[in-house]
Amino acid sequence: MKLSKKLMAALNKQINLEMHAAYTYKGMEQYFREEGYPQYAHFFNEHTKEELKHAGDFKTFIEEVDGHVEFMTLEGVPTEYASPKAALEAAMDHEKMISASIISILEIAIEEKHYAAENFLRTYVDEQVEEEDLFRSVMDAMKHAGEKGAAHFNLGQILKHEHEED
Ligand SMILES: [Fe+2]
Questions:
Q1: Which of the following CATH numbers is that of domain 5-70+78-165: 1.20.1260.10, 1.10.10.10, 1.10.357.10, 3.40.350.10?
Q2: Ligand 1 centroid from CA 14, angstroms
Q3: How far is the CA of 111 from the centre of ligand 1 (A)?
Q4: Could you give the C-alpha distances from 131 to 27, 68, 99, 115, in angstroms and in order?
Q5: pTM
Q6: In angstroms, what is the span from residue 29 Cα to ligand 1's centroid?
Q7: What is the pLDDT of residues 55-88, one digit of tens each?
């Protein structure tokens, strides 16, 4: 099930995007830590691990179909945001960008009739539905608590939900 150059390049780029997501969430963790929102900092630290796992899954898939893995340059990420709400909106936008990227790779796999890649990528379409839903829950939690209340808000339930999916 050899990968075409185009499909392999797209999958390698996705490793980079997942690593970039991990780094971005590490930056958000730092922002929330410095602003005094330990629960949110903890959430983003946990989510960094999730993104590293995603990068690992793409790497493993490329290996399993006898492709070649590339680790591309990682860009720097912010550790400052205009507000806690702005940081969460940026996280949501990032997830939407990841979803769009996965769908564009899935379209290549379908076009090339690479069914193994198609199956793998479809599991990631489902994963992204969960990711966007999770970030919406975190945004709702902040909306209901207000930015000041959110500093003490217990995100435990949301984190528990995330862990159950691991
Ligand atoms: Fe991801």
A1: 1.20.1260.10
A2: 9
A3: 23
A4: 18, 28, 9, 24
A5: 0.90
A6: 16
A7: 999 999 999 999 999 999 999 999 999 999 999 9
